[in-house]
Design a protein that fits this description.
By secondary structure, the chain is an alpha/beta fold. Helices cover 41% and strands 16% of the residues. It folds into 2 domains: 137 residues, Aspartate Aminotransferase, domain 1 (Alpha-Beta Complex); 254 residues, 3-Layer(aba) Sandwich (Aspartate Aminotransferase, domain 2), CATH 3.40.640.10.
Amino acid sequence: MTMTAIQNNYNVDEIRREFPIFEQEIYGKPLTFLDSAASAQKPKCVIDAVHDCYSNEYANIHRGGYFLSQTLTAKYEEARETVRDHIGARFSKEIIFVRGATEAINLVAHSWGRKFLSEGDEIILSQMEHHSNIVPWQILRDEKDLILTVSPIDQKGNFLLDEYKKRLGKKTKLVAITHISNALGTITPIKEIIRLAHEVGALVLVDGCQALPHMPVDVVDMDADFYVFSGHKMYGPTGVGILYGKKDLLEKMPPYQGGGDMIRSVTFEETIFNELPHKFEAGTPHIVGGIGLAMAIDYINALGFKNIHDHEAALLDYALEKIKEVEGIELRGQADELAGILSFTMAAAHPHDIGTILDQDGIAIRTGHHCAQPVMDFMDIPATARVSFGLYNTKQDVDRLIDGLHKVNRIFA
């Protein structure tokens, strides 16, 4: 099925056929993949783009004067432009290719944070951050004697905007916050969070990993100072991600790593650094990953975000209704604004046991603390079972999940 056909008719059964992994069975059962929040499956167009690049186009980029290098350099920079257009950035040089959101956050912490933060400065995080948006700031806190302040949530997982306002002050220099919680599915009021931070002169870094696969993002409209995301969660390759930063901020920041391509000239006495974006892209990049990410973005845009949203919202509503049939279920996180993630516990079984039993029926879910242990501590639980939807999931997937949860109850009863 062509991308044009997808755009004109969102047929989930035909879309699933674009994902080769769904052709297989797990333990003799159809694969029911409900872990897209951890990493999404890849459509054939992305797989083909990666394969074709390695098979027919590959060479190192930026530094070769021959045909293959020049051709692939142009394609890689076109991928950067595809990302820029997708998130509404003003300049391609504001798009930094990195290995993933984790590296993007570390880049900001080590480059911007080390240069511009001083003893007593404050960073505000939310209570539901992923570890990758906690640990780098803790390392920087300990190095520079900073203050880390946590903005709370309620038991449903709602971000408490009034409590956040109380924590903002003249010492606040950075707010680092998720757009959508990976553990609870909460959609934060990101534009208001950013507006309030800017009123006190603070910058805002947004973790957009869970947002980009499911909704349009315009970094200029929301006025984010930094926005980070990973390719593998939005149907692209692993090992590639994006740091968006406002140009004036990035230009003032020192390089994060040293090596080839991030320099203009090197002597033993002095190095002159390259301009944006290359200043932050030391060494040979994940060339094919960037090209695969651009293809994934094209695929998402061909489907259309409204189609994706409507499909996933209908699935979530269906799942919320059906899961009520399961005895002993407790949903963890039912925020007023919720993305396609369901976290839950069961009275009869530990989340790890739930996952093991479901796996035997070919049902893949995530169990554990989801790299968000502070959320688990807040809710006084060790872990949850988490279901997360992608654009390829169906009501039949939900039905198989519910049957599997009934099975869990029968086994442990």
